[in-house]
Write a structure and sequence with these properties.
Helix content is 25%, strand content 31%. The protein is of the alpha+beta class.
Length: 120
């Protein structure tokens, strides 16, 4: 049904406003998404932007499955940010936002992005 609705909208060239709490439907049917919480706009963007670059922890948690990890920045090197949390001392990741040593951050980990490597 999602595919049919999307095709109908494109064929007719009409704008449609679709209100849903189903994140899968929103991601599949939309060119732009508005994520709201308690009547307040949290983020407006394309499905890709909303999923890959959430504006805050609420949007990250609301759209798709994700793990949110409170951490502190301990080192910043050439585009990589090293953070420390209470479970694993050092985690490296290319930072989406500029961070400084000592900043408290929330790291988002999407399950489909987890990669296991051998401990050497």
């Amino acid at each position: 049904m999602r595919k049919e609705l999307r095709e109908l909208q494109r064929r007719l060239g009409k704008t449609a406003v679709y209100v849903t709490h189903d994140q899968g439907e929103a991601l599949a049917l939309s060119d732009r998404i508005v994520v709201m919480s308690n009547g307040r706009i949290e983020q407006i963007g394309s499905p890709w932007e909303i999923y890959e670059r959430p504006a805050n922890a609420f949007v990250a948690d609301f759209i798709g499955g994700s793990n949110l990890i409170d951490a502190i920045v301990i080192r910043v090197d050439a585009g990589a940010t090293i953070i420390r949390n209470r479970w694993r001392p050092d985690i490296a990741r290319v930072a989406q936002y500029a961070c400084s040593v000592g900043d408290r951050v929330v790291a988002m980990v999407r399950p489909e992005r987890v990669r296991l490597i051998a401990d050497r």
